[in-house]
Design goal:
The chain is of the alpha+beta class. About 25% of the residues lie in helices and about 10% in strands. Strand 1 and strand 2 form a beta hairpin. It is globular and about 55 Å long.
């Protein structure tokens, strides 16, 4: 994260940490919030970029969660300034979701699918190529006294085959979905190809 973006959002650049004994070093999380920017992004500021694919990671998931919206938008703003505003016309941002990634965890084991989606989003969003890249999108949720229906649009594939109506699960908003007991088994009633 660019240091100025952190300052604008009220996030201290450095964290106070106890001094580690020389004879017992321990690997801890990054001590300076801008280490990755300084080491991995800044060296490329003299080159021309057309876009960026950003993987958020989770090491800092418990820190400054109330300032994420500020820090993410400021990061984009300062990246544009760092590249002398040559990137101001990059207005499109795409977040890949993995609701169909067979996982009960926010850390998907099958990273190939996420990477594939990201690479195709770059082709579609940045270069305007006509390729499918979109994640499954929950179109609507309907409640009735005896059932609940979730309509999902998934344009990423054209030949979904319903082999077994069982085995589909949902986790409700506000639940900690990494716990298996919070996933609710549901039945797929049909697949409608558009």
């Amino acid at each position: 994260m660019p240091p100025k973006a952190l300052q604008d959002c009220g996030i201290p650049i450095n964290r106070d940490v106890p001094i580690q004994p020389y004879d017992n070093p321990s690997v801890t999380t990054t001590l300076n919030h801008s280490n990755l920017f300084n080491a991995m992004i800044y060296p490329f500021t003299c080159t021309v970029v057309y876009g960026a694919i950003w993987y958020q990671g989770e090491t800092n998931a418990g820190y400054n969660t109330d300032k994420y919206a500020c820090s993410f938008s400021k990061m984009i703003q300062y990246w544009r300034q760092t590249w002398n505003e040559r990137a101001n016309d990059i207005t499109d941002i795409y977040f890949p979701f993995v609701i169909n990634n067979y996982e009960f965890n926010v850390r998907p084991r099958y990273k190939h699918d996420v990477g594939y989606r990201l690479s195709r989003s770059g082709l579609a969003v940045a270069y305007g190529q006509q390729v499918e890249f979109q994640d499954p999108i929950v179109q609507s949720v309907a409640y009735a006294t005896d059932s609940r229906t979730v309509h999902i649009i998934y344009t990423g594939v054209s030949n979904i085959e319903l082999r077994n109506p069982n085995g589909f699960e949902v986790c409700c908003q506000g639940s900690l979905c990494s716990k298996d007991n919070l996933w609710i088994p549901v039945t797929i009633s049909n697949v409608c190809l558009l």
